[in-house]
Structure formats: structure tokens, C-alpha cells
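Consider the following assembly input.
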Amino acid sequence: MIIHIDPDGDLAIYDQIIRQVKFAIAKGVVDAGELLPSVRELAKELTINPNTVARAYQELQNEEILESVRGLGLRICAKAPKKCQQERQNLIRIRLASILQEGLQSGLTADELKSLVQSELQSLKSGKATA
Amino acid sequence: MIIHIDPDGDLAIYDQIIRQVKFAIAKGVVDAGELLPSVRELAKELTINPNTVARAYQELQNEEILESVRGLGLRICAKAPKKCQQERQNLIRIRLASILQEGLQSGLTADELKSLVQSELQSLKSGKATA
Amino acid sequence: MIIHIDPDGDLAIYDQIIRQVKFAIAKGVVDAGELLPSVRELAKELTINPNTVARAYQELQNEEILESVRGLGLRICAKAPKKCQQERQNLIRIRLASILQEGLQSGLTADELKSLVQSELQSLKSGKATA
Amino acid sequence: MIIHIDPDGDLAIYDQIIRQVKFAIAKGVVDAGELLPSVRELAKELTINPNTVARAYQELQNEEILESVRGLGLRICAKAPKKCQQERQNLIRIRLASILQEGLQSGLTADELKSLVQSELQSLKSGKATA
DNA sequence: GTGGTCTAGACCACC
DNA sequence: GTGGTCTAGACCACG
């Protein structure tokens, strides 16, 4: 699992970590039962403060994505993959609805939006390398 | 032009004002050359701090959406309507692309995304009253 | 609302704050809509680090007990009183069940436990002043 | 005496061992004078770190529950059964008092608590198989 | 070695 | 003034 941090982005660093861990779990890059890199290790790798990593891991525990195994580290919960996938799909649906609604409100027709979607999907497909 | 503020929302209040002003201009609710309510007036109307209104107006001036007219107040620039429309459409296209890309990455196919778009548009159309 | 901290207790300080805030809300000592003492203020009052207070407040926000009001402070959510009362009663029931079970396992009979409960209630009633 | 360890539980492993040893002594499963399994043996059986077993045994010696017998191992002290029983009952009484007090503080009446106790005892009796 | 907690002090955006 | 985030460095319990 590779995590990339953008310290200048809008999102807090700890939030970026949370999202990327969830994303990796949802995609199956890491699976239930696996141990995550230790707080100190990940902090060193990303050259950020261990506290920041700890905070991200802490919230993932609160959401029952990770569980602490005394003396060993943090492990991905059994139900985490399912949870992360569902959460991700929900997020996508909600954000899609909101952006479509905004499109309608600014005067675009449903057909215009659909063709916009079509063309964006095309360019994403062709530009796959950049993804 | 009616502006509505949600003090509990995610967005900063000054940002809500900026967006709604731009939105109103893009939609043609207000047109180039018109004067906006004064800082004090709008602040009173929205029962928020005048500093907050001033900050929003300031930023709109920086973006050349508004221009100060000595002794009169703030007026909508001649090029503002075009600018706001373009900015809005750009925003929508960018956000649409980003959400579609995310959808693809999380394993949805292009067809699944298209039908998702279709169904969301349907439900938006039927639930128009709430918009 | 008075919060008392025992820095040598088993519970983390931030956890003591969380519990006492929830307790105060459940009891109605503070009500929905009220603002809590600011992070810095409470930290000063308890002579602990502001970060520790912030962490407690942060978790209370995650649980939707508090909500942040930009520039003003943290306010008790509308649904918080109900939520806190229910949570508290659940906790009591669970802990009661666990302690009773342990009693049965260590050889006490149901009747012995009931009379134990009776006598403890008596002494709590009479010693009310110490509570 | 069978000891069962839950490595994912809230309690430290060494603490689980301590409690279960004390519990077994209190119930008479093992009696004064008997020898306990050696550190290495128990560690192997529970597949945990020998340090962890050693720590538990150490603490039991400090509390004069166990005594070291040169060349033989660790033996249950003569006074241990009495001690463990009393400690257990004290613990139960104290925790019962605390939870009852908390119940009263959160607005439940003595009668409500008593009927709560009654119903919990009922459900424990019927669900005995799970205990 | 691991995570968990706390302190101290800094900077930011917002009102 | 408010909360939100991050850094730095310390100590603890656990295995």
C-alpha cells in the first residue's frame, strides 16, 4: 500500500491518510487481517510527525476499520473491506447527485449533462495512463 | 437577489456569499451595471458581522466581478456575467470529471456510472420541488 | 457545568472530560444550544493542555454531541440530550448485567445478589450527602 | 485449571491470567498447596510470550497468592483461597455500589434499579448455557 | 519493538 | 476572540 501526501492540499494530512487507507482497503490492495505500517514507520516514510499518523490511525479505529493488537500494531478489521466499499459507493452517489443538481440549476439540460458525462468518460478512458 | 446563509454549514460564510453572488450573476438574476446592497445593509439583513460581508465583497472585487463606484457602492462589472457563467461551467466539468474518475477507480464500469447518472437525473427531476 | 479531573485515575484525561460532558448533558445540567467553555478557557481552568481539551471536544463532535460554530465556539447539538440519556442507560444496563453475571459465577445466589443490591441502595440513600 | 486468553480484549493479557488464576482459586478449582504450570509451559499452551506469563506470576507472588518453591515451581499459598474469595466479593460489592449510584444519579429510582436487576437476573438464568 | 497519552508551542482560517 | 491542524518531544504500558 502506497500512500501519497500533499501537504499543501485543502485536506488535512491526517484526513488524506484516512481516505487513502480506506480506499486501499475498498480496492482490496490490502485485506482484512493484515497489519498496517507502524505509526513511527509511516511517519518516517512520509516525513511527517508520528502524532499525525497516530491521529489518522486513531480515527480509523473509532470507525472500526482498524483494531489495535497489543504490542504488534494495527490490523485491518474483518468487516472493513465491505464497510469501505459501501462507504465509497455512497460517497460517489451523493457527490454525483449534488453536482448534477448544480448543473441543472445553472441552466444545463439533462441531455447536455449526459453528453458531458459521456465525453468526460471518453477522455478518462483514453488518458488512462495519467490516472 | 436573495442570499441565504447557513452558519452551520461546511463553507465559510464569506464563501457562501461569494458563491451566491456569482451564481446569481451567472443565472442573470442580476445583471452587469446593477448595484449590490451595501456592506452594512447586507450584514444587517443576514444578521452577520459586517467584516464578513466586506471580505466577500473584497474578494469579488479582486476577481473583477464587482467594481467600486465612488459614492454609490459596488457595481457588477460588464464582463462579470460571461465570467461567472464560464467559471461555473468549468467548475461543474472539473468536478464531474473527478467524481467519474473516482468511480472508475473504485471498480465501477463506465456503463454503471452512466446509468447511475441517469437514475440520479430522474430522481432530481421528479423531486424538483425540493431544489 | 463543573468538570473535575483526576490526573492519576485509570481513565485518560480527555476521556474523563468526554464522560463528564455527556453526563452533564444527560442530567440536563447543560442543555441543547448552549455553548461550552472554550478550549483555552477550560484548559486553563483545569490546568491541563489545550490540546487535551481539544481532543475531547473533537471526539464529542465526531459523536454529534457538539457542533462547531465558526468563530463562536462549540454548541450542544439538538439531539444530544436524548442521545446522552440513552447511551447512559444502555451503559448502566450492560454493566449491571456483567457484574451480576460475575456474582453468579463466583457462587452467589440470585437472592443473595438481590439483598446485596437492597443493602447498597439503602446505604447510598442514607449517605446521600457524600454523593 | 483451564485458562482462556482473548488477545483482542480490553484487558492486558497478563491481567487476564491474573484474574483467571485468582478466580479459579476462589472457586476452589485449584486448592492451596497445588503447583501451577511453569512459565514456559503455560506460555507455550497459550501461545503467548513467556515474559507475559512471568509478569502475571510475579504479580501474584507480590500479592502473596503464589509462593516460589525452589526447584519445584510456584505453589498456591495457604491463605490464597480465603484471600481470593474475599477480594472477589469485595470487588463485586464495590462495583455494584458504583453502578447503582450512577443509576440513581442519572435519574433512575431505587425501584427501577431493583426491577432492572430482577430482569437481568432472569435473562441470565435462562441464558445460562452461554455463560 | 508496538500503540496511547500528554505537554508545549506554533500557525492557520474564521468571525 | 474562536476552533483546527501540525510539529516536537516526552513518558507509559504491553509483548
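The mean pLDDT of chain B is 91. Ask yourself how this observation constrains the way the partners meet.
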